[in-house]
Amino acid sequence: MVPASPTPTLPISGPAIEALDGLCDRWTLLVLREAMLGVRRFGGMQRNLDISRSLLSDRLRKLVNLGVLERRPYRRDPDWYEYHVTAAGLELWPAVAALTHWVARHVDDIDRGDAAIRDRLGEMSSNGELTPADALLVS
């Protein structure tokens, strides 16, 4: 006999599913991590992540539409933009930092680049609390 599936205590609907879908893929999290590390420009993100222009454009658009990043012009004719983490984006800091720390602890073949990123994201204190995002980031 197959046990009955438990009823979810907090059903996820419409906007919540859209937000999770927009945030929970590899490239979106990596783009967000770059922005949290202070990389503001398209070219810098593309170079650091070795990501195609179309994929990066798509992920930046998603993050802007979700209110996680804000697009600010820094050059005209042609228009070029920088991407800044919003207050809503900073609220994702604990999740991004926790994932980075988890990978560092549990993935045996972490490379030096990932280790350096982990170090830049801040160290966990002895009581397990993360360094607050606003102490690390300048928008």
Q: Which key phrases capture this entry?
A:
Arc Repressor Mutant, subunit A; 8 helices; two-stranded antiparallel sheet; mainly alpha; 53% helix; 139 residues; globular
Verbal overview:
The chain has 139 residues and is mainly alpha-helical. It is built from 8 helices and 2 strands, in the order ααααββαααα. The chain has helices at residues 14-23, 26-36, 42-49, 53-65, 87-90, 93-106, 112-120, 133-136; strands at 69-75, 80-85. Strand 1 and strand 2 form a beta hairpin. Helix 2 packs across helix 4 (53-65). The protein is globular, with a radius of gyration of 17 Å.
Provide the fold topology.
Elements (H helix, E strand, L loop, with lengths): L13 H10 L2 H11 L5 H8 L3 H13 L3 E7 L4 E6 L1 H4 L2 H14 L5 H9 L12 H4 L3
Antiparallel strand pairs: 1-2
Helix pairs in contact: 2-4, 6-7
